[in-house]
Amino acid sequence: MINKLIQRIIKLEAPIVVGLDPMLSYVPQHLLAQGYKEKGENLEGAAEAIWLYNKGIIDAIYDLVPAVKPQIAMYEQFGIEGLKAYTKTIDYAKQKGLIVIGDVKRGDIGSTSAAYATGHLGKVTIGDKDYRGFDEDFITVNPYLGSDGIIPFIDVCKQEKKGLFILVKTSNPSSGEFQDQLIKERPLYELVGEQVAKWGDLFMGDSYSYIGAVVGATYPEIGKELRKLMPKTFILVPGYGAQGGKAEDLKYYFDKDGLGAIINSSRGIIAAYKQPKYEAYKEEAYADASRQAVLDMKEDLKKAWVKN
Ligand SMILES: O=c1ccn([C@@H]2O[C@H](COP(=O)(O)O)[C@@H](O)[C@H]2O)c(=O)[nH]1
């Protein structure tokens, strides 16, 4: 899957992943009305509206970007109905040829990680048949529990030819509280990055490992350092746009060929129609605004996606 992701990035000239982080407040009135009419003004109706909203965005952007990243928390707000919308979104995105990165940030003791890995990346056997749960192509994983919490995910990745993005340096303002702490004079994110590179050796693709890292766009100096420390690790970069990350700061997240990283934008794309820049787009044309926002992001990233 990492080879396919890289091929798609090259073909589309777009190292971009669209984050599908739907909030009810982003969903246009006509879709809310449709969801509530069909399923009731309740969790089911809200989840239906979220699904319709996502479908509109996927239809508008699937030919421009290689991947989408649904954030499971946004769906879990609506309980089981939300998870059904999460599953429908994944299935539809894959049907449209998109690679799906499930932002689920799982990680636990070994046996529990194995179950998470089965549910999100693998298959479960019931009777004499295999069934897939969520079936994302990649998921995000939290390394805080150490190797025995990560290896079960890597084992399933090897069986399924799927991948991970492991949190190394997150984009949020307080990420430094723990991640920047020095241990034997080295910041924790560096030790985690080094370990992610070692885990990556366990499952290499053609040029990059199936085991990638998450490094936020909001700490460009750290991004530069980690790129050097993890030369074969593909980097998922959240924090561009809504969190303040800028294209010109992202140059060193890429390798000398302009590869090795994919930049996420969620609110900046899916709620583009609410931004003053896209005010010409009315609510009904929210998906057209998202398409334009992707085109603008692609242009903007040319500032970063240059040969180093
Ligand atoms: O370090 C991290 C890890 C994950 N995220 C997730 O990415 C998106 C960002 O959304 P925007 O609207 O583009 O800010 C969201 O799903 C986060 O949970 C992150 O931001 N930083």
TrEMBL record:
GO terms for molecular function: orotidine-5'-phosphate decarboxylase activity. Its EC number is 4.1.1.23. Belongs to the OMP decarboxylase family. Type 2 subfamily. It is an enzyme of class 4 (lyase). It comes from Herbinix luporum. Pathway: Pyrimidine metabolism; UMP biosynthesis via de novo pathway; UMP from orotate: step 2/2. SUPFAM superfamilies: Ribulose-phoshate binding barrel. The active site is at residue 105. Keywords: Decarboxylase, Lyase, Pyrimidine biosynthesis. Residues 15-281 form the Orotidine 5'-phosphate decarboxylase domain. This is Orotidine 5'-phosphate decarboxylase. One of its GO terms (biological process) is 'de novo' pyrimidine nucleobase biosynthetic process. It catalyses: orotidine 5'-phosphate + H(+) = UMP + CO2. Signal peptide: none annotated. It comes from the Bacteria. It holds the Pfam family OMPdecase.
